Amino acid sequence: MLLSSPKQKLLDRYLEGRCAPDSWYQQSIPRRPAGSCVPMSLAQEQIWLRSLRAPENPSLYNETITIHGNGPFDVAMLERSLAEIVRRHEAWRTFFDVSNGAPAQVVHAAPKAVEILVLDLRDVPIECREARAMRAVSEQVQIPFDLECGPLLKAMLLNLDDANHRFVVIVHQGIVDGVSAYQIFPTELAALYGAFLADKPSPLSDLSIQFGDFSIWQRAWLSGHTRAQQLEYWRSRLRDPFPELEWPKRRPREMPETCAGAVLPFAVPNEVFEAADRLARSEGVTLFTTLLAGFATLLHSYTRQKQFVVGTLSPAGRKRAECQNLLGYFLNPVALRFDFSEEPTFCELLSQTSRIVSEAISHDDIPFESLQQELGLQRGFGSFLRVAISLQPKSPALGNGWQVTTMDAELSGSRWDFYLAFIQRDQRLEGRVQYNPALFDEKAIVATIEQLFYVLKIVTSGPAARIRATFEQPARD
Question: How many domains are contained in the chain?
Answer without folding.
Answer: 2
